[in-house]
Amino acid sequence: MSHSVTTSQSSKRPPGDDPATGPAASATTSVSVSVSVPAPPSSLRSWLAVIGLALGVFSFVTTETLPIGLLPSIAQGTSVSLGTAGFLVTGFAAVAAVTAGPLTALTGRVDRKWLLVALMVLYIAGNLMAAVVSSYPLLLTARLVVALAHGVFWSIAVSVAVRLVPERHAVRATSVVLGGISLASVAGTPLGTAVGQSAGWHAAFVCVGLLGILVLGASLLFMPALPARGSGNLTVLLRVLRHRALRVAVAVTALIMSGHFLAFTYVAPYLQEVAGVRPSLVSALLLVFGVAGLVGNFAAGAVVGRALRTSLIGSTGLLAVVLVVMYAGGGSGPLVIAMLVCWGVLYAALPVALQTWVMRLVPEESEAASSLYVAAFNGAIGVGSFIGGLIIDASGPRPAMLVAGAFALAAMLVTAVFGRRRGGAAQPARS
Fold first, then answer.
1. Structure pTM?
2. 347-357 pLDDT tens trace
3. By the 8 A CB rule, do 263 and 323 touch?
4. Nearest Cα residue to 63 out of 98, 101, 93
């Protein structure tokens, strides 16, 4: 749909005048201009597109973590060790972290609708390839294809969402999109694991591949054309890296996510060995963690827009307290369960706050800035899990909570000391 605009202009100038310099000519000009202006999408269509992006986040998070619950059967089916099979997760995160920035920058001139379509085609192709192969090298190749799409999707999803809605709804759109993270914890990964255990791991990859088809359909049906705003070259990354406050935001992301994954990767052995939770209840408690995350995610949407820096300091500080309490009071099952719920609420609020912070810092290069955030986030998965593994092997799961609390405390202090500078978290939101 387009609007046609016709204008008629009459102006008089004294003879001999140049329009750029002053009176000298007398003329009457009639100008008829027909301008094709894309009509803005309806409010309903815009929010359906935002929900489609949230479903995309849900799909990518589910795919990223899917092999975790299926490692024994994947290892057996591809004739590799458990450690080698685990690279399907850590390798995925590493590739997404390394390629997010460069690929997002290089695709900076592509209309965002059609870039999303291309990313979902890669997602579907990689997962369906994983569903039909039986050799480990081919399975790893399929996973890395999805990882290439993963980093770029994460880098542009929120910036696309805030372009779809009025500026006053930017934080709400961010919380809706990132709600896909918590939803994946509640439904995606557990259901994918259940399908894989009952029907085989190939069937689980079929299901997530079909899920991608829904996201592709939503992108085609509801997403309007969104002209690119990038330069299409890597210099944009160097430009945003000069932004001191953005480097602070990326550092805080790396600290808090490393701390989270340091502890959460090994939360099951902590619950069983330290808190004395029966193995049969662990999955139920992880479901409770995910539900608490949904609450925290949407609560953050109501608070972050009004008090971003305070939200970050409060969330990271309280998370540090929660993790220290889990270290000190690990022998009390009820206390641990209460702290696990608090952990779920606080952790889910952090991606909303961090992503909003990054978007506000460099609004003119929001996707390039987001790609650095994505790199820090995914890199933290590997770093945190690695450090946690070393601690567990040396001292058991309990000390991991204390070290994770130290990471959260460090994130709080960095935000409090360096996050107040000009261009920092307190800057007004712009889409």
1. 0.74
2. 988 988 998 89
3. yes
4. 93
